[in-house]
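Morning!

This is the sequence you dropped in the shared folder:
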Amino acid sequence: MQDRKRLPPWLKVPFPSGAAYMQMKGLLRGAGLHTVCEEARCPNIGECFACGTATFLILGSACTRNCGFCAVETGRPVGVDLDEPNRVADAVLALSLKHVVVTSVTRDDLPDGGASIFAATISRIRSLSPDCRVEVLVPDFRGSPQSLRKVIEAAPHILGHNVETVPGLYPRVRPQASYQTSLSLLASAKEIDGTPLAKSGIMVGLGESKEELRQVFEDLRKAGCDIVTVGQYLRPSLAHLPVERYYTPEEFGELKSLAEGLGFKHVESGPLVRSSYHAERAV
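The structure's back. Tokens below.
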């Protein structure tokens, strides 16, 4: 883990604990479910678990890609758990959630990239908890319009896909991904069905410039993106990319103003912001 002593004060958070936190962990373990909160070592896990919210990670815990920033395990996934959509929906019902986020590892080994499991999960949640808003954070499906259509037709309220960083840093940060593919996915979501809100997120602190960030914001708006999140990159381990610099809360405020000025419907910008942090506030 990153050395907390070297972090600026605005990035230090309490160690996760408490009865609600342990209850959430127990429910997830009992159901055999994963969360990106745990797998990606999110700094907000204590706050979110204590509030009874979590971002479910489906399609296993091993990712077929090896991004330079991500703490999720890279490996060779084995099969697909067809009962997982039922268990996620049961957990959503048990927690009486009003807004749920579902994401996944990237499964390039599957013909549809896991889109059918996303669709089944959305449908099952909406069936058991009709008043719950469903947000999905999907991989790029290798640019497959058929896979994206499967997810969209299941009627999520929010369709999210993160560009993660500026295009010039993709070879180092997301070597197996394409910036244009990510933009096209967001644009295609609106072309298939303009109903779901489109959402994306970006990290800062990897060596990007403000002008590059402005260009990403403009590209996302042109692609029809409604919501954007901006947060500080934190190095999960020494094996991951180093932090080039820490942005101050004031700089995050400036980025928020910049994005809002370009017409986004909602902007979350702050040192500890992650793509699903306070997700319900965007609706």
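Headline: The chain has a mean pLDDT of 87.

More detail when I'm at my desk.
O.
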